[in-house]
Amino acid sequence: MIRYFINKVHNRRWGYRPRLVISVPSGITDVEKRAVYGSAERAGARRVYVIDEPKAAGIGAGLPITEPTGNMIVDIGGGTTEVAVISLGGVVTSQSLRIAGDRMDEAIIAHMKRTYNMDIGPRMAEDIKINIGSAFPLEQELTVEAKGRDFITGLPRREVISSEEIREALREPITAIIDSIRLTLEQTPPELSADIFDRGMVVAGGGALLRGIDKAISRETGLQVSIADDPLTAVARGTGAVLDDLGRMGGVLESSDSDY
To answer: pLDDT (tens digit, 9 = 90+) per residue, 131-164?
Structure first.
């Protein structure tokens, strides 16, 4: 896949070996990080840099992560949720949680099985999450028609479900994410905690699009919570910004020339 994108960007100029910046979850192991370097180098990269996803999300969201102030970013992706406090270009404290959008979809699938004895696929679950999913009570609750297969008869079936029941189904993964945010705040040095209290935190990633996620986090932490502009692409835009200015932003990266 990496080789395909290199060829696509550089018009299939064989022999061209570009520099790559790849964002990775902050909680990956050294073995996983070495696998990222090795895969990119075998795909044709001349030099490989990696950046922690929270840093990339912070840059993409416009946070001044290289300044001596505390910046808190919550990146709710598909497979992982990254929570980090960043200052002077480095991660001061962080949590990497393997609970995010995919786990929310699984919770919806489990709810439909448990409540309606109905089997729905991941795509239907994601559609339900997008259309009526929420983390905080809505001013006007919503409904949607779910389509799937009856477990008993094996025949196609449809059921009208409400945003209230989906919110209850999502309670467990959302609570786990909020607990991770609390733990990160507890581990933050006091001087940076003051900055976060004044400025709040930013939520990015596809999970930031879940209705009321900012209100739910704010209610549980007492802090101001804002959603990044175009949260779905924050990590990609931040990674691109670093690649465009490696001279100034190189301090936030690790490269394949390191111990890995």
So the answer is: 999 999 999 999 999 999 999 999 999 999 999 9
Residue 260: DSSP 8-state: -
Total number of domains in the chain? 2
pLDDT tens-place string over residues 41-74: 998 888 899 999 999 999 999 999 989 999 999 9
Are 190 and 231 in the same domain? yes
CATH number for the domain harbouring residue 48:
3.30.420.40
Which pairs with CB-CB distance under 8 Å and at least 24 residues apart come from 104-111?
104/129, 104/133, 104/170, 104/173, 104/174, 104/207, 104/210, 105/129, 107/169, 107/170, 107/172, 107/173, 108/133, 108/166, 108/169, 108/170, 110/169, 111/165, 111/166, 111/168, 111/169
- For residue 128, give the CATH number of its domain: 3.90.640.10
Q: Determine contact, residues 74/86, Cβ cutoff 8 Å.
A: no
d(CA 144, CA 127): 9
Predicted TM-score (pTM) of this structure:
0.88
Q: Are 91 and 60 in contact (CB under 8 A)?
A: no
Are residue 144 and residue 17 in the same domain, yes or no?
A: no
Which of 143, 171, 199 marks a domain boundary?
Answer: 171
Which domain covers residue 112, as residue numbers?
101-171
Q: Which tokens go with 44? A: 């044709």
